[in-house]
Write a structure and sequence with these properties.
Radius of gyration: 17 Å
Order of helices and strands: EEHHHEHEHEEHEHHHEE
CATH architecture: 3-Layer(aba) Sandwich
Structural class: alpha/beta
CATH topology: Rossmann fold
CATH superfamily: Vaccinia Virus protein VP39
Strand order of the largest sheet: 5-4-3-6-7-9-8
Largest sheet: 7 strands, mixed
CATH class: Alpha Beta
Helix content: 40-55%
Distance between the termini: 28 Å
Number of strands: 9
Amino acid sequence: MSEKVSYGFQWVDPAEKTERVTDVFRRVARNYDIMNDVMSGGLHRLWKDYFVDKVRPRPGEPILDMAGGTGDIAFRLARRGADVTVSDINPAMLEVGKERAAKRGLDLKWSEQNAEKLTFDDASFSAYTISFGIRNVTDIPAALREAHRVLKIGGRFFCMEFSRVELPLMAQAYDWYSFNLLPKMGEVIAKDREAYQYLAESIRRFPDSRTFEQMIRAAGFSNVRSQLILGGVVAIHSGWKV
C-alpha cells in the first residue's frame, strides 16, 4: 500500500496515518471513556448493549474483540461467558483496559495487534467484533481480510461504526455538533482538541453503509447486512464466514 490515505480531511502516507492515529489514542486513553459518555450523552452504552445482543456470545466460545481498547465490548462479551481476546494496536489503550478489567474481576486475554496483520492462526475464533475502530485502520480491506482469515467456518463478523446520517435536517444538526461542539468538548475534557477534530473528520471520511457492505463482501463474507441506528449516526454491520 503506497498511495495516500485519509487522516481526517488530510491525505498522508499510510505509515504516517498509522503513526498519527496511534499517537491520538495514546494521548486520549485516560479520558477516552469519559469522553464517550459526554459525546453520546451516555447512548453509547445502550448501543454497545444492543451490539453484544446481536453478537449472541455463547459460553466458552473464543471471540476476538479487535480495537477493543479500554474493554467496553469485551466486558459485555465476557459477562456472557465468552472466552475473549482483546486486541488493539495501542498499548496505552490496552493498559487502561487491563486496569478496568482488574477492578471488575474479569479474566480476559490481552494482545497488542495490528488489525491489518494479525498474528493469530487461521480459524482461531468463532466471532470477531470491532466497535468504533475500523475507520481508524489504515488499510481497511486488509483488516477485513484478516478478520475473515482468523474466523472459523461459520464464524461471524460484527462491526459497529459511525455512519452517514440519511435524514437531511438531522444530518445538518449532526454536522454542526461534530465540527463545533465536539472539538470544544475534547479541548475542555480531554485537553486535546486536535484528537476530537480528527474524530469528526474521520467519521465523514468513512464510507456509507452500502459501500462498506461491499467491502465486507469483497473480503469473503456472506449474508452481509447493515442496520442503521438513529437515522445513520451509527451502523451495525455483520457477515458470516461460510
